[in-house]
Amino acid sequence: MPSNKSVSAAPITQFINCRILRDHRLQREDLWVREGKILDPEKLFFDELGYADERVDCENGIIAPGFIDIQINGGYGIDFSQPSDDVDGGVSFVAKKILEHGVTSFCPTLVTSPPEVYHKVLPRIKVRSGGAHGAGVLGFHLEGPFISAEKKGAHPEQFLRTFQPGGFQDLMDTYGSLDGVAMVTLAPELSGSRTVVRELCQRGIKVSLGHSVADLSQAEEAVQHGASCITHLFNAMQPFHHRDPGIVGLLTSDKVPAGRTVFYGMIADGIHTNPAALRIAHRAHPSGLVLVTDAITAMGLPPGRHTLGQQVIEIQGLHAYVAGTQTLSGSIATMDMCVRHFRQASGCKVEEALEAASLHPAQALGISHRKGRLDYGSDADLVLLDDSLNIKATFISGEEVWRTGP
Amino acid sequence: MKLIILNDYDKASEWAAKYIRNKILLFKPGPNKYFTLGLPTGSTPLGCYKKLIEYYKNGEISFQYVKTFNMDEYVGLPRDHPESYHSFMWNNFFKHIDIRAENTHILDGNAADLQAECEAFEEKITAAGGIELFVGGIGPDGHIAFNEPGSSLVSRTRVKTLARDTIMANARFFDGDLSKVPTMALTVGVGTVMDAKEVMIIITGAHKAFALYKAIEEGVNHMWTVSAFQQHPRTVFVCDEDATLELRVKTVKYFKGMMHVHNKLVEPPPSEAKI
C-alpha cells in the first residue's frame, strides 16, 4: 500500500473515463473518492503528493449523484404503513431493492394512520447511512393525518385529524415522537396549522403542503411560516384556477420570501401527471421540481394479480389497478423510470432530469451540503448511467452496491 | 540551432509533442533513471500538452519515470487560484497523465522565504541530474519564463518584478482589474535554462514574429532574452508560418529545405514498433 498519504491512509478510488454532473453540467472529469467522500484531486496531488489506489473504468458513462426519493410508501409487496412485527425488515428489504433504481437514500413514507401505528413504527426505524445493505434512510416522510377530508385521496378517512386547540401537542400525541422524521405533509388550511408549521420547522423538519383545499393565500402564509415543499403537485389539491390558483400558484408566487425556493414533488410516471401538466410545472419553476415515485406496495412486483393487505391489485405494464376495475391503485414507477420519463416528456437537458432526482430532493430536505451534488466533500453516493439514463451501477460512500448484469 | 517551420499552430504543437515523446522513449527511463523535463505554461504549449496526453492515453508513453520542473509561478497568488501555474499544470497536463506528484516541481510563490525557495529549486534540479529537455515559449517581447527584457543572461532562479506590459497583458485573466494581477513572480533564470542539455522553444503566431526574428537573426542581447539560446549547443525552435513573417526569405528557405531531415526526429522510434 502506498504510504504517501499525509492526511489519511485510506485507499483512494478514481472513477475514470466518465462525464460527471457538477455545477449543473456534465463535465469530462474523473471523480475521486476517499473515506466515502468526494475528494479534490488537485489538493491531493499538490498537498499530499497522493494518487489513486484503485481505478474504476466507467466506460464513458455518466456519473450523477445518487437519487433521493422523498416519497415512497413501499414496494415489492411491502407497505411501510402496515404495522408488522418486522417493520425494520420491510424497510431494509425495499432499501436494498431500490439500489437498482439508482436510489441511494430515501424517506420511507407513512400515509394517514392511527396513532398506535405511528407509535409502533416510528421508533423502529432509525435514520441510517446506506451501504451494500441498502439505500440510506434519511428519515420518515409523514403524509397525514393532518390533511383535508375533501382531498384525502387514498388515505383512510377515519384516521384523519385536525389540530386541537393544543395544536402542536396534538401532533406530538399523534406521532408519539419526531425522532427520525424528516418531512411532514399537512393541509395548511387546518386551523392551528401556522403554529405547527413553525414548530416543525424549528425542529429542522420540513413541512410540505398537500392533500389540501388551501387557496393560494393560505399556502403563501404557510410558506412564510416555514413550509418549503408541495406534496405531489396537482394531485390531491385544488385544481389550478386563474383567479385562485391554489397551492399550484406557489410555483410563481411573489410572496415567497427572498432567497427561498418552494420545492414540489412530481410523480413523473406518465400516468399520475399528464405530460402537459408536467411541462407547465417544469417551465414555470424548474429549480423546484423534485421527482418522487410515491410508489406503493406493488412497485417492483411482476405483472399479474397480487394480494396486498385487504386489496387485490392487478399490474399491467406501468399501471396498477384495483383488480377487475380500471381504478388506479397508486404509482408503481421506479425512480429511474421517472427520470427517463421526465426527460422525454419535458424535453429538458439530461442534467436537469438528473438534478430533479438528486440535487433538488437534497435541497428540499436541507442536506445538499452533503448529498445531491458531486462537490468536494460531499458523500460519494453515485449512480452510473448510460446516455439513455439506464442505471449501470450504484455506489454508496464510493462502494459499489449494485451493478447491472453483463 | 534547428528551426522547425510547420504550417500552423496545430502542426507545430504536434511536432513539439512528438519530439518530447521520442526524447522520453529513446531515453528509456526507469526507476533508477528519470527523464527530467522543463515545462512552460501559457497558451502556446497547450496544443503540445493535448498531444502528449493523447500519446499517454494511446499507451505510447508513460510519465511514471519523468520528473518535471516548471519555469515560473506568480508570487502571492493562492495555489488553487484558477490563474496560478499550479492550477494550469494540474488542469492542462498533470491530471490527465500518470505522473506522480512527488516527481513534479513548481516554484511555491507563497513560500515564507522566496529567495530560499528559489535556491532550493536550483538544488532540486541539480539533485535530479540536470534537465534533459527544457521546453519553453516566449512573449512578444522575447522573454523566456519571466526573464523580462534586460534580465541577465546568466541569471538563476529568483524573484522578479513583472514588466508593466506583462501585467497589462495578464489583466484579462483577472477580470480586467490591474490591482488583482500579481506584480511579482518566481522564475528560473536564463542561465538555469541554458544549463539544460537541450532546449526547445515553441513560437507561434504573427504577434511573435518580431521576437523570433530577434531571437535568431540578430545578436545575443539581454533585451530579447530568448536570443541567449544562440549560444546553447542544442536548441530547437519550433514555429508556425505566421511566426516566420519577420524572417529573411533566405533563413526560412534554408530551414524548410532541411525539414525532410528534421522530420526524422519525430518519426515513431523503432522501440515503439512492438506495440
From TrEMBL, chain A:
Belongs to the metallo-dependent hydrolases superfamily. NagA family. One of its GO terms (molecular function) is metal ion binding. It catalyses: N-acetyl-D-glucosamine 6-phosphate + H2O = D-glucosamine 6-phosphate + acetate. Pfam families: Amidohydro_1. Its cofactor is a divalent metal cation. Pathway: Amino-sugar metabolism; N-acetylneuraminate degradation. Residues 62-401 form the Amidohydrolase-related domain. NCBIfam families: nagA (TIGR00221). Gene3D superfamilies: Metal-dependent hydrolases, Urease, subunit C, domain 1. Substrate binds at residues 154, 235-236, 243, 272, 328-330. It comes from Oryzias latipes (Japanese rice fish). The active site is at residue 294. It is an enzyme of class 3 (hydrolase). Binds 1 divalent metal cation per subunit. Zn(2+) binds at residues 143, 211, 232. Its EC number is 3.5.1.25. CDD domains: NagA. This is N-acetylglucosamine-6-phosphate deacetylase. Keywords: Carbohydrate metabolism, Hydrolase, Metal-binding. One of its GO terms (biological process) is negative regulation of UDP-N-acetylglucosamine biosynthetic process. The keyword Zinc does not apply.
TrEMBL record, chain B:
Its main location: cytoplasm. NCBIfam families: nagB (TIGR00502). Belongs to the glucosamine/galactosamine-6-phosphate isomerase family. Residues 32-232 form the Glucosamine/galactosamine-6-phosphate isomerase domain. Keywords: Carbohydrate metabolism, Cytoplasm, Hydrolase, Phosphoprotein. It catalyses: alpha-D-glucosamine 6-phosphate + H2O = beta-D-fructose 6-phosphate + NH4(+). GO terms for molecular function: glucosamine-6-phosphate deaminase activity; identical protein binding. GO terms for biological process: carbohydrate metabolic process; glucosamine catabolic process; N-acetylglucosamine catabolic process; N-acetylneuraminate catabolic process. The keyword Endoplasmic reticulum does not apply. Its EC number is 3.5.99.6. It comes from Oryzias latipes (Japanese rice fish). Catalyzes the reversible conversion of alpha-D-glucosamine 6-phosphate (GlcN-6P) into beta-D-fructose 6-phosphate (Fru-6P) and ammonium ion, a regulatory reaction step in de novo uridine diphosphate-N-acetyl-alpha-D-glucosamine (UDP-GlcNAc) biosynthesis via hexosamine pathway. Deamination is coupled to aldo-keto isomerization mediating the metabolic flux from UDP-GlcNAc toward Fru-6P. At high ammonium level can drive amination and isomerization of Fru-6P toward hexosamines and UDP-GlcNAc synthesis. GO terms for cellular component: cytoplasm. It is found in: Cytoplasm. Homohexamer. This is Glucosamine-6-phosphate isomerase. It comes from the Eukaryota.
